[in-house]
Amino acid sequence: MGKLQADDTTSMLRPVTATGPAEPLWMRAPARDDEGRPLSDFMMLIPRLGKRPVEQMRQILREIEAVLCAYQHAVVFADMNLKLNVLWVTVRPIPGICLELPAALKVRVPEAMLVASRHE
Predict the structure, then answer these.
(1) pLDDT tens readout for residues 33-69
(2) Which residues are bridge partners to 13 per DSSP?
């Protein structure tokens, strides 16, 4: 996984890649790993994140980034949409990761809520 960045102009937390911010999420989020195995993903809602004062918002994004970096062995893709206040994370199919990682995020960002998870 590449370095994650918070980009104020595109309102996203994402791996640094050549993909443009205008592409839909389904085009950017991988569904399979390099060996063709299906990946899992989950979505978390962080209420009113995009409407918070800039420094508070940046601090929350740093907390999210710290957790995602701690789980870089599992995280394949992450996208933070500040307009929708939704964090989308795609992970390797590691048993329990779609509960463990959201729980770790919730410890650092208590208002974060797990909305959905999917495993093929």
Answers:
(1) 989 999 999 999 999 999 999 999 999 999 999 999 9
(2) 6
Burial class of residue 98 in the structure, from the number of CB atoms within 10 Å of its CB (0-12 exposed, 13-18 middle, 19+ buried): buried
Q: Which domain holds residue 92?
A: 4-15+29-118
28 and 79 in contact (C-beta within 8 Å)? yes
CB neighbour list of residue 12: distance below 8 Å, 6 or more residues apart:
6, 21, 79, 80, 81, 82
Contact 101, 91 (CB under 8 A): yes
Q: What are the tokens at 26?
A: 């389904």
Structural domains in the chain (count): 1
Compute the distance between CA of residue 109 and CA of residue 101 in angstroms, rounded to an integer: 12
d(CA 80, CA 21): 11
């994004």: which residue's tokens?
61
